[in-house]
Amino acid sequence: MDENGIRELEGRLQKAMLSSDADALDALLADDLSFVDATGKVWTKTDDLNGHRYGLQRIEQLDVEEQTVRVYEKCAVTVTRVALRGSFGGAPFAGSLRYTRTWCETGGAWRVVAAHCGLVPF
Question: Burial, 80: exposed, middle or buried (Cβ in 10 Å; 0-12, 13-18, 19+)?
Answer without folding.
Answer: buried
